[in-house]
Design goal:
Elements (H helix, E strand, L loop, with lengths): L1 E9 L4 H12 L6 E12 L7 E10 L2 H6 L7 E3 L20 E3 L3 H12 L5 E3 L5 H14 L33 H11 L16 H17 L3 E3 L4 E7 L2 E7 L4 E3 L3 E3 L6 H9 L5 E2 L2 E10 H9 L16 E3 L5 E8 L3 E4 L9 E4 L8 E10 L10 H16 L6 E5 H6 L17 E3 L8 H17 L9 E6 L6 E2 L14 E3 L10 H20 L5
Parallel strand pairs: 5-6, 5-11, 6-7, 11-23, 19-20
Antiparallel strand pairs: 1-3, 1-4, 2-3, 8-9, 9-10, 12-22, 13-18, 13-21, 14-15, 15-18, 16-17, 19-21
Length: 536
């Protein structure tokens, strides 16, 4: 088959127009086109009155080689690359020990799935509960202010990505098409088939719940073992190599291969590894607030008269501003038609995040508005970034009234430097509630200064972004891991053999898709290590 890229048509084109465009692009007779399929569909909304759909298509032709020869110098017409996933190893009949995967978020899920597919019968240890029980605990905080430190937005089957927008796009390079493997497995588990071709696929929380259960069943059917409410207390290390793990209940599991896929909020695990001598370093992350606007405002600004078009859905945005004080402020984890959610993993803390359902039909749009910070802002040992996160989250808890309400402020009041006393036209979506106050003490002064400069700048790109009634809630601190567990070219810790740091918590991913891809790559490295080869 041949692949055509960058084929552009008007938003409301017909199927026959698409077929005609293919025939015209390849300069072929109508009967020469046998079939075609959509590999990717995106849109160009830079001109709101003339929005275009942009296609990547795989086409089957009667005279493929002859057509291809005419496009040798055209990068937009080429052979369709192979994207079918091939396993790199097969488990031996006798395994001295089974590999252990710690964490069952997107990274641990795919690491476990791949190891199971290759016959290695992984043991997956998850400190939280199965996803449906975890959902009940999470709603316990949102609806009744009842917090479970081991079962919440951060901890439990599916990881933090379960209670998010479910975005499945990433900007990482993917030369081996591992992303296609991820999307294919999601569709097999019940995701909408459209995620295979839309440019910004997403699933939403409720669909993710049933999908994760389906994938868990697949892993178990292939010989994998998943243990919930099994927090790892210690990693046993002898002579610079892994020898096993100890659980909180005192059980020890003998193993020579441990995947650390714990997510960015497993602070006790980072501390334990650091104290055991595993090389850990501080890394940059970002801090800020959530901002909410009417979704209709974003739709209108982005799509004009096409706002509400079914092929476009709820509009998103991506913004960045470089400030006079040297800081950068940017939008993070934008959730169209979503809600702001309570996302703490520790008692007496307040953390915000964003979530959407598949329909993205809630009234408000929300996004993190965050400021980049570096280890220079939190000097000390490699865990100093965690200390800063905790400091800000505890302060937010107090500022919100000490009841898990989030501290909040209208944008107009924030820019004017006065406390808010009442909401305007926008009702915040965060539950259990928002306590109005002055957010100027919720973040370091340099971050407040930067956000106050950035909001009017963003308003020039999206008119109304700095509207007085828009609502800020705080604090957003879990944008990415504040540490990196450094690994070598074989995906193992640089000073601990058999320890495979992976995903967001280890500092190697940022979102569902990149975490899942990293899980695949690490699973391959583990498999090759067991059979005596190395992944390079």
């Amino acid at each position: 088959m041949l692949r055509i890229t960058e084929l552009k048509l008007p938003l409301d084109h017909s199927e026959s127009q698409l077929q005609s465009a293919i025939i015209k692009r390849l300069d072929i007779a109508t009967e020469a086109l046998k079939s075609y399929s959509i590999f990717r569909r995106s849109y160009d909304a830079r001109k709101r009155d003339s929005i275009l759909l942009i296609y990547t298509l795989d086409v089957e032709l009667a005279n493929e080689s002859a057509v291809l020869s005419r496009f040798q110098d055209d990068p937009q017409v080429a052979l369709t690359p192979g994207t079918h996933y091939q396993h790199v190893a097969e488990a031996p009949k006798e395994l001295p020990t089974r590999p252990v995967v710690i964490g069952f978020g997107p990274c641990g899920l795919f690491a476990g799935l791949l190891l199971a597919e290759m016959g290695f019968r992984p043991i997956i240890l998850e400190r939280g509960k199965p996803v449906r029980e975890r959902t009940k605990d999470t709603f316990g905080l949102w609806r009744r202010r009842e917090f479970n430190p081991e079962s919440n937005v951060q901890f439990g089957e599916g990881g933090a990505g379960t209670f998010s927008d479910g975005k499945l796009h990433t900007q990482i390079k993917d030369p081996h098409h591992y992303g296609r493997k991820v999307l294919t497995e999601f569709v097999k588990a019940g995701a909408p088939p459209e995620i295979l071709y839309v440019s910004k696929p997403h699933i939403g929380t409720f669909k993710l719940v049933s999908m994760i259960e389906e994938m868990r069943g697949t892993i178990e059917a292939l010989g994998g073992e998943i243990r919930f409410e099994s927090r790892v207390e210690d990693v046993l290390i002898e002579d610079g190599a892994v020898r096993g793990v100890t659980l909180a209940n005192g059980e020890t599991i003998d193993t020579r291969h441990v995947v650390i896929a714990v997510g960015h909020s497993a602070r006790d695990t980072f501390k334990m590894l650091y104290e055991r001598g595993v090389y850990v370093e501080a890394k940059p992350f970002s801090i800020g607030f959530r901002i909410e606007h009417p979704q209709s405002l974003i739709d209108s600004c982005r799509f004009g008269k096409y706002a509400g078009h079914p092929l476009l859905g709820a509009a998103d945005y991506k913004l960045v501003h470089h400030c006079k004080n040297g800081r950068s402020v940017y939008s993070f984890c934008m959730c169209p038609g979503g809600t702001v959610v309570a996302a703490t993993s520790e008692p007496g803390h307040v953390v915000t995040n964003g979530m959407s359902q598949y329909s993205r039909n809630e009234r408000n749009a929300n996004s993190g508005i965050v400021v980049g910070i570096t280890p220079d802002d939190y000097p000390g040992n490699p865990l100093a970034g965690i200390d800063l996160q905790r400091q800000l989250e505890k302060a937010a808890f107090a500022l919100g009234g000490g009841t898990y309400d989030a501290p909040g402020q209208r944008v107009g009041d924030f820019l004017a430097g006065r406390a808010s006393t009442q909401f305007g036209s926008i009702t915040p979506s965060y539950t259990p509630g928002v306590h109005l106050c002055d957010l100027s003490t919720a973040l370091p002064a340099y971050a407040i200064e930067a956000i106050r400069e950035a909001l009017p700048a963003f308003d020039k790109k999206i008119p109304g972004f700095a509207m007085a009634d828009a609502v800020l809630t705080g604090v957003e601190t879990r944008t990415s891991s504040p540490v990196r567990i450094k690994r070598n070219e074989h995906y193992q810790s640089i000073n601990t053999r058999g320890l495979f740091p992976a995903g967001e918590g280890a500092g190697y991913a940022g979102g569902i898709m990149s975490a899942a891809i990293d899980g695949i790559e690490v699973a391959e490295a583990v498999a090759l290590s067991i059979v005596g080869n190395s992944k390079k």
